[in-house]
């Protein structure tokens, strides 16, 4: 069964409202972090979210214990592609038909694949969990959800190993949102709980499917 397609507005809001408070606090801290402090904060959040396990995740330049690139470099490399997604909205019918958006997503996959640098999994590179969590943070929730095991299982998208498969999974998210909108006769943005109304749609969708 799709993630929210058969939810009522009330049941959808309950899912979002019952999202883990720890992750909400992490998100609020991230959103409030100045750009100069974001490399270090990105590392803190992604380590708490176990984004790159079992591989070793990169550190920011100030605290790194490895050779570059550092998280500072990854965020700098990601910046033009994040900017290209400035108006991306996972609930927008045209979002995944825009070639410039798809190019930016492919480039972000390549950037955030470098989140980890050593380990037995994927020749040391980050996988879809780390990449999608990193991109969700870097885009302030415009691109979401993060495809951890819970979300992937809920959507039945299978293993995500490439940027193309990631975009296909995002298309499944979009289809799920559109189905929810048709059933309930409401825009996804208008169905969000009032206290989360200002969050980007990708982040709110992540909260609906994520850990309780």
Kindly list the characteristics that best describe this protein.
2% strand; 10 helices; 212 residues; mainly alpha
Class computed from helices, strands and strand pairing = mainly alpha
The strand order across the widest sheet is: 1-2
Reading the helices and strands in chain order gives: HHHEHHEHHHHH
Number of helices: 10
The proportion of residues forming helix, as a percent range, comes to 40-55%
Could you say which overall geometry the principal axes of the C-alpha atoms support? globular
Could you give the count of β-strands?
A: 2
| N- and C-termini, Cα separation | 19 Å
Describe the SSE topology.
Elements: H1 9-17, H2 21-31, H3 38-48, E1 56-57, H4 71-84, H5 99-112, E2 116-118, H6 128-138, H7 149-155, H8 163-184, H9 188-191, H10 201-209
Antiparallel strand pairs: 1-2
Helix pairs in contact: 1-10, 4-5, 5-6
Q: In a few lines, what is going on in this structure?
A:
With 212 residues, this protein is mostly helical. 53% of the residues lie in helices and 2% in strands. The chain is built from ten helices and two strands; from the N terminus they run αααβααβααααα.
What does this 3D model show about the protein?
This protein has 212 residues and is mainly α. It has one domain. It is built from ten helices and two strands, in the order H-H-H-E-H-H-E-H-H-H-H-H. The chain has helices at 9-17, 21-31, 38-48, 71-84, 99-112, 128-138, 149-155, 163-184, 188-191, 201-209; strands at residues 56-57, 116-118. The chain has a two-stranded antiparallel ribbon. The model has no long low-confidence stretch (mean pLDDT 96).
């Amino acid at each position: 069964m799709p993630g929210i397609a058969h939810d009522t507005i009330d049941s959808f809001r309950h899912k979002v409202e019952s999202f883990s408070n720890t992750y909400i606090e992490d998100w609020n801290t991230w959103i409030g972090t100045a750009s100069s402090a974001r490399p270090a904060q990105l590392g803190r959040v992604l380590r708490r979210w176990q984004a790159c396990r079992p591989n070793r995740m990169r550190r920011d330049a100030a605290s790194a214990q490895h050779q570059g690139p550092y998280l500072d470099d990854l965020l700098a490399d990601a910046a033009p592609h994040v900017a290209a997604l400035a108006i991306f909205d996972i609930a927008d019918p045209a979002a995944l038909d825009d070639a410039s958006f798809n190019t930016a997503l492919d480039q972000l996959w390549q950037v955030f694949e470098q989140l980890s640098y050593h380990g037995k999994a994927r020749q040391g590179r980050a996988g879809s969990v780390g990449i999608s969590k990193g991109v969700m943070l870097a885009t302030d929730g415009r691109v979401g959800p993060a495809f951890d095991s819970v979300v992937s299982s809920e959507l039945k998208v299978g293993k995500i190993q490439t940027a193309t498969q990631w975009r296909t999974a995002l298309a499944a998210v979009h289809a799920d949102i559109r189905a929810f909108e048709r059933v309930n006769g409401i825009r996804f943005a208008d169905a969000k709980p009032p206290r989360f109304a200002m969050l980007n749609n990708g982040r709110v969708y992540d909260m609906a499917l994520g850990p309780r």
